[in-house]
């Protein structure tokens, strides 16, 4: 973690070669900015299999409700800066997801990070979060 305050969270993330990253998803409230520091980051944009490759110095800003995902589809590590605004429960989400949670904890964590999955009605996702105690 590089910085956090009430308005934003800034992280530096390294993905190993061929790392999955995050599947296509969206946020209802938060926005994210990805800036590549080294290597190449593949960003899935708006629709499945619509990939853009970002090189060092490239950035992409993701607004609320924009579908996106990311991965390292190269054979080299990638390091990128991720800015999340507002940060809300995003650190709690990351802390849960990166300790290899069980399925119920993973589903619960989605609501911490304002992470929503396309193709599943939001009302259904909210109900699942509420039932699981998120």
How would you portray this structure in words?
With 134 residues, this protein is of the alpha+beta class. Helix content is 21%, strand content 34%. The chain has three helices and nine strands; from the N terminus they run βββββββββααα. A hairpin with a 4-residue loop joins strand 1 (3-4) and strand 2 (9-15). Helix 1 (90-97) packs antiparallel against helix 2. The relative contact order is 0.23. The mean pLDDT is 90.
Short description:
With 134 residues, this protein is an alpha+beta fold. 21% of the residues lie in helices and 34% in strands.
Write the layout of secondary structure elements.
Layout (H helix, E strand, L loop, with lengths): L2 E2 L4 E7 L6 E4 L5 E8 L2 E5 L5 E4 L4 E4 L5 E4 L6 E8 L4 H8 L5 H10 L9 H10 L3
Antiparallel strand pairs: 1-2, 2-9, 3-8, 4-7, 4-9, 5-6, 5-8
Helix pairs in contact: 1-2
Give the strand order, joined by hyphens, for the main sheet.
1-2-9-4-7
What summary fits the major beta sheet?
Answer: 5 strands, antiparallel
Oligomer: single chain
* Strands, total number: 9
Helix and strand run? EEEEEEEEEHHH
- The number of helical elements comes to 3
SSE-based structural type: alpha+beta
**Range of strand content:** 25-35%
């Amino acid at each position: 973690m590089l910085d956090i305050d009430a308005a934003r969270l800034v992280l530096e993330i390294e993905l190993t070669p061929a790392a999955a990253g995050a599947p296509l998803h969206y946020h209802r409230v938060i926005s994210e900015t990805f800036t590549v520091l080294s290597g190449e980051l593949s960003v899935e944009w708006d629709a499945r299999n619509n990939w853009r490759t970002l090189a060092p110095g490239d950035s992409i800003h993701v607004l609320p409700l924009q579908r996106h995902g990311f991965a390292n589809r190269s054979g080299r590590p990638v390091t990128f800066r991720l800015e999340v605004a507002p940060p809300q429960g995003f650190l709690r989400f990351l802390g849960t997801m990166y300790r290899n949670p069980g399925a119920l904890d993973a589903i619960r964590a989605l609501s911490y990070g304002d992470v929503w999955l396309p193709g599943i009605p939001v009302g259904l996702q909210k109900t699942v979060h509420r039932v699981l105690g998120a």
